[in-house]
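Students often ask what a 'structure token' actually looks like in practice. Rather than answer in the abstract, let us consider Diphosphomevalonate decarboxylase, a protein of 358 residues. Its sequence is given first.
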Amino acid sequence: SAMPGDSVDKENMITCTAPVNIAVIKYWGKRNEDLILPINSSLSVTLHQDQLKTTTTVATSRSFQEDRIWLNGKEEDISHPRLQSCLREIRRLARKRRNNAGPGFDATALSHKVHICSINNFPTAAGLASSAAGFACLVYTLARVFGVEGELSGIARQGSGSACRSMYGGFVQWIMGQQEDGKDSLAQQVEPESHWPELRILVLVASAERKPVGSTSGMQTSVQTSSLLKHRAESVVPGRMVEMTEAVRRKDFAAFAELTMKDSNQFHATCLDTYPPIFYLNNVSHRIISMVHRYNRHYGETRVAYTFDAGPNAVIFTLQQHIPEFVQMVQYFFPPEINGGQFIKGLSVDQAPLSEEL
Ligand code: ADP
Ligand code: DP6
Ligand code: CO
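Now compare that with the structural description of the same chain:
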């Protein structure tokens, strides 16, 4: 440890958090693997950071020999192309900034290596968008360390496609873009969180296990083998993007909910249409789907919607006034069973309000 008077290396360390986002119009399939350019636009809701979030610390120091990263306490391979893309692009912006800025700009970090430490407070790779919160947080924190500002969703996108949408709060679209270089494939806020304060999100955790097929490789196989996916991207999603944006603008819950459920179901249908097929939903997921439809049918009105990403865990949308009754029903149908002091069955219910801006 350093004694007073010893020369201490100047260290720069910043910690930031980023929220998960859940797509209501799903992204599934790339037209360019390296730049991460999608075959369709998508639209999501960013969760509040109190619930599902990534916390990332980035330190720079003259004494660091290499860039390194630890994920949930375990060192990962920094040479992963997506990590390299994010580091390269942020440093490129930082050099640009340094070259344009006057002598007041502190560019010390640019000559240093970084150590990155990232922790998710929820299951990683279980279909709860850890790659979205993870890469959004990485890019945001790196930008702070290197003094970079401005549009960063294009860099987050190169870490994980869904990550570009976590750079904004509220309702966010990722416009697929047309350009070969991907410069117009960016996220954009559709409405802020404050637009629809009555909307509530519940996360029902059916399994915290790592999914057997990651999103990246799953969608690759789908692009190669599913004609349903091609049809969806070309002929279904463009219309749904317009309808969904309108439903959100009007705060039309029934329209929002029905589109959300249909899009989730079509996404999982493309997974089944993939060869060999990919199964992300399990029995609990199927029971949740039936329960939601039964609930809505009982009231003759669409009060609750489900959506599932690439995993069995349900994300439920409803309005504030229906929360107590719905949660009671979930606990009735999925009671926690105690076995040796451990909860082995039942769903953990998490209430997550929407997010402010990052
Ligand atoms: P998910 O449904 O959780 O997004 P994916 O298959 O899309 O699952 O991505 C999981 C991968 O995302 C992890 O294996 C890891 O490589 C990356 N990832 C997850 N969390 C972080 C994080 N906090 N920082 C950097 N990368 C992360
Ligand atoms: C089902 O963004 O995780 O959650 O771009 O390969 O990292 P990569 O994939 P990822 O895919 C997310 C797929 C999804 C739908 C969505 O979030 O839009
Ligand atoms: Co992901």
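One point worth highlighting: Residues 157 and 164 are 5 Å apart (CA to CA). Ask yourself how you might have guessed this from the sequence alone, and why that guess would often be unreliable.
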